[in-house]
Amino acid sequence: MEEILSAKDLKKYFVRGGFSGHKDVVRAVDEISFSVKKGETFVLAGESGSGKTTTARLILRAIEPDAGTVIFDGVRIDNHDTALRKIRTECQMIHQDPYASVNPRMTVSDIVREPLDIYEIGSVKERNKQILEALREVKLEPAEEIAKKYPHMLSGGQRQRVAMARSIVTRPKLVIADEPVSMLDVSVRVGILELMRELQERLGISFLYITHDLSTARYIGHRIAIMYRGKIVESGPINDVLLDPKHPYTQALIDSISDPNPDNLTKNKEIRIKEFSDIDVYEGCRFRDRCLYAAEKCKQEPQLETIRNDRSAACFFPLN
């Protein structure tokens, strides 16, 4: 299947310091590579601080990478105006917080219209038509009435649908969804995820789905990459990775998922991980300070290597 997005050796370091003058380097994204195929949902998963959102910002050129390349729909994305215009019109983003990602002083119509105005897509009449079409596509009805409302008049789920309408109004080829359901009530999450699947089938949109929630990832994703401290530690088809994890960190993430069976609520669930350490480990395997299976060899840095078929893991001792 043809690729819509390819990231190769993406790298971004940040420098943090205090009043003492001492400075630390945070390796937010450290030479990661992955691709998104046309018509698929590729999941980028990991705990908070693993570098997922920074990766999204690098792809959209919201921040400049220190190194690495991004190729979107056959075009290398750099600071050239043509490349930037292509990715910013044909690649859109849905943000995590539906309360913060829309302007409370703008009507729904103005919010959805904004990308059309910025990139001068269509006439005024055509833009009005596209706005109503986008609202109907995300199932905000009656679209004519919703378009006149302000964000405070809508529920959280409706606001996120407005953000989705804004993201698809330019007919993008790729949408980056950054934790799009994490701040919504559990009762409306499935509706948003199901809508994403419908939009994908109807409009042919590819999704880069960023999350820490492996249950929603499995519901919507086709392939997955697990990130930890700026590195991809495992990747492959989503069912293969989540049902048969090879990296100890992936196993720990799966262990941390809540059990919906009420009979198991009183049982102590083992999470196969050492006590949490907030010390940044950048020499050797980054997970070794928390890994139950760490050995002397783990002081060297493992590379992401193919185990079989489309499965890859960065571990000297992959799980059986």
On the 0 to 100 scale, the average pLDDT is 91
Q: Structural class, please?
A: alpha/beta
Cα(first) to Cα(last) distance is: 30 Å
* Share of residues in helices: 25-40%
**Share in β-strands:** 15-25%
**Spatial strand arrangement across the major sheet:** 6-7-8-3-9-10-12-11
Report the biggest beta sheet as strand number plus sense, adding barrel if it closes.
8 strands, mixed
Shape: globular
User: Total strand count, please?
Assistant: 12
Low-confidence stretches: none
The DSSP helix count reads 10
Order of H and E elements: EEEHEEHEHHHHEHEHEEHHEE
Computed CA radius of gyration, to the nearest angstrom: 21 Å
Keywords for this structure?
320 residues, alpha/beta, eight-stranded mixed sheet, globular
Give the SSE map:
Elements: E1 3-17, E2 23-37, E3 41-45, H1 52-59, E4 67-72, E5 75-76, H2 81-90, E6 91-94, H3 108-118, H4 124-137, H5 143-146, H6 156-168, E7 174-178, H7 186-203, E8 206-211, H8 214-220, E9 223-228, E10 231-237, H9 238-243, H10 248-255, E11 305-308, E12 311-313
Parallel strand pairs: 3-8, 3-9, 6-7, 7-8
Antiparallel strand pairs: 1-2, 1-4, 4-5, 9-10, 10-12, 11-12
